[in-house]
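Bumping my old thread because nobody answered last time. Still need a sequence for this structure:
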């Protein structure tokens, strides 16, 4: 298995992620499911109180007004965005923009739904998306999800990594040679995992 990874070591973190997501169907499932999990989490967190009694900010969207509350959801959005920009300024800036877009739009939807309906929507989406990901790992990847080995990556880094996976399809690289080095590490880690599994079976 891979050695302990430095927190902002994008190359090794992405290789770790790739080793658990090498099947195309499982990758597609995660691309569909990861961001809705973040979005609906922010939707539910809209109903948490403002931090340090900070005043809310009123915003008008399509003729509807919404109060943007500087609460735990906002704090998580800032933390996620800063981490992503630190990992890679270009792809991270896009990820940060998407995080803030999720925060604003989820606030708008939450304010229209109200808590009683919002939590039901969140519950359904979370159940569907988490179930989909576990099916992806169990049936297609045939490997336990990464959250069992790295919780920080599963909850903090996953949205950025599925975005990076999508950008990779458009030949984006954080720096020259990134994908070649990552792919070599992914193949080495998968081979090591398969050898270890084979030894346990025999």
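Sorry it took so long. Here it is:
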């Amino acid at each position: 298995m891979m050695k302990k990874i430095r927190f902002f070591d994008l190359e090794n973190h992405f290789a770790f992620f790739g080793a658990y997501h090498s099947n195309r169907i499982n990758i597609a499932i995660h691309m569909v499911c990861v961001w809705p999990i973040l979005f609906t989490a922010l939707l539910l967190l809209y109903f948490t109180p403002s931090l340090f009694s900070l005043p809310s900010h009123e915003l008008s969207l399509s003729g509807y007004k919404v109060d943007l509350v500087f609460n735990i959801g906002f704090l998580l959005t800032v933390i996620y965005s800063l981490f992503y920009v630190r990992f890679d300024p270009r792809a991270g800036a896009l990820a940060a923009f998407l995080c803030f877009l999720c925060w604003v739009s989820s606030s708008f939807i939450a304010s229209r739904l109200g808590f009683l309906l919002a939590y039901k929507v969140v519950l359904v989406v979370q159940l569907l998306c988490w179930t989909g990901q576990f099916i992806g790992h169990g049936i297609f990847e045939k490997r336990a999800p990464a959250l069992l080995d790295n919780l920080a990556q599963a909850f903090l880094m996953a949205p950025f990594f599925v975005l990076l996976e999508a950008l990779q399809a458009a030949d984006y690289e954080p720096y020259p040679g990134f994908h070649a080095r990552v792919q070599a590490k992914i193949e080495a880690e998968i081979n090591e995992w398969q050898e270890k599994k084979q030894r346990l079976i025999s």
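The beta strands are 57-61, 64-68. Let me know if any region looks off to you.
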